[in-house]
Amino acid sequence: MRPLEPIGPGGPSPNAASSDDGDDYTFCTTCAFSHACLSEGYAKQDLAALHVLVEHIGPFPPGRPIFKKGDAFNAIAAVRAGTVKTFILDDAGNEQVLGFHLPGEVIGLDAIHSSRFPCSAVALDTVTLCRLSFPKLSLLAARMPGLQQQLFRLLSQDIGKSNLLAGDSSSEQRLAAFLLLLSARYAARGFSPSRFLLTMSRTDIANHLRLAPETVSRIIRRFSSEGLIDIRQRDVQLLDRERLAAMARPILRD
Amino acid sequence: MRPLEPIGPGGPSPNAASSDDGDDYTFCTTCAFSHACLSEGYAKQDLAALHVLVEHIGPFPPGRPIFKKGDAFNAIAAVRAGTVKTFILDDAGNEQVLGFHLPGEVIGLDAIHSSRFPCSAVALDTVTLCRLSFPKLSLLAARMPGLQQQLFRLLSQDIGKSNLLAGDSSSEQRLAAFLLLLSARYAARGFSPSRFLLTMSRTDIANHLRLAPETVSRIIRRFSSEGLIDIRQRDVQLLDRERLAAMARPILRD
DNA sequence: CGGAAACTTGAGAGCCATCAACCAGTGTGG
DNA sequence: CCACACTGGTTGATGGCTCTCAAGTTTCCG
């Protein structure tokens, strides 16, 4: 039996440890914006101007709504810890899961153009956020070319993301792609790429991938019995990244 | 037999008539950026600065590639006339149609973050474009808050677009939604909302909606026989917008 | 006019959703 | 401490929507 020590998203963020120190901007690297500025080597006063915009909010307990479709938009947020699910409900009450946002990722970018949130968001586990007033951020971006570029990049990136799972592909291809994408996103934030916790329910995964929960369950079982993954509850380990990648190839492409 | 006078996207753009006059910036309204500035009431010198960035290119004949996946990105483009199809090919050669871009719409926004085009684009009919150097545009945006906002809005809008057809829904819901979306987009540019030409093939529509061409054909036939639409080849007329909207409700929602 | 491409129509198969039942973990209250 | 309800997950059987395959028809264009 494999030991179940705390791992991945269950544990503390590896980079967030010093982010509450207040004065030392160099360590709030879970926040994509600070990070952007750091990597561009800006003057300390600009960093300060940016950092003063950052408002740490939360924690949100599991299930707590973060914003609702139709809410007035005036700030974007970067996830510091936990997982945020975005979704929309049609008038029959059917949920459509748009995506999951991991630590270091930004939510609310799709709300800019209409000044209202086009979707709702809820915390899947204990979530803390960095809130950034968008008007103030825009103002600052006009003064800081690197920040403007970073915002453009973030927005641009999100366009491509939704296209990934847009195609028609088999259920197994989509699930393989989903796991590999999660892995890559965790890896990008300093978590283990081969072992992590699925912070979302099977039902949410299924909905997001346009599958029935039963189908997800069956495919997970199959992946597991074929030695592609090892999974206990929501603790998943990727054993054969090669074959997973081969499966997901038509979706991930590169 | 209904007469087949030239309509919609087949004819000249209703707003583009004077856009080649050079000095009078007030009439290049097919270009989303000029339009944005006009609506914000900018100083003439700013308009001039913007207009000097606009490079009219084309025409591209039907089938001509506009850019290819992997190409270096340095400019976005607004469609002046015609329809542009964006798509990606997996290594088996299977095409995945990401979207269609009508006059007034912008292409290339998804290329910003990686400085390479993540998809390919091809002209479906005779296409002319406004090319806008993105570095120069960014520079100008820092000086013109309204332009920066407009860019943010355009990018943000594109994020939402891809989410529309992301859900799982029946083939007839998706096709109804597709027709209504086209209608709204044509209407927004001054074309008839109830009658227009499908500038893309059934195969492309099918691919975009994750359906087989045969399925699209059958549903079009059904819509037609039920009096929802009247269609001759690619010339389509929406007859019962109400019922179409009712069908597409779970997708369009509002 | 001829050939290719696009579109349509029909028949059969397959993937996945649906329905239903069961199981496991968790929290609640008697 | 245990019965109970409840949520989330799993497993099995069945059916339907849509794809696939195949052939025929129309349109387009050299």
Automatic annotation (TrEMBL), chains A, B:
One of its GO terms (cellular component) is cytosol. The keyword Repressor applies. Residues 60-121 form the Cyclic nucleotide-binding domain. It comes from the Bacteria. Keywords: Activator, Allosteric enzyme, c-di-GMP, DNA-binding, Repressor, Transcription, Transcription regulation, Virulence. GO terms for molecular function: catalytic activity; DNA binding; DNA-binding transcription factor activity. PROSITE patterns: CNMP_BINDING_3, HTH_CRP_2. Pfam families: cNMP_binding (PF00027), HTH_Crp_2 (PF13545). This is CRP-like protein Clp.
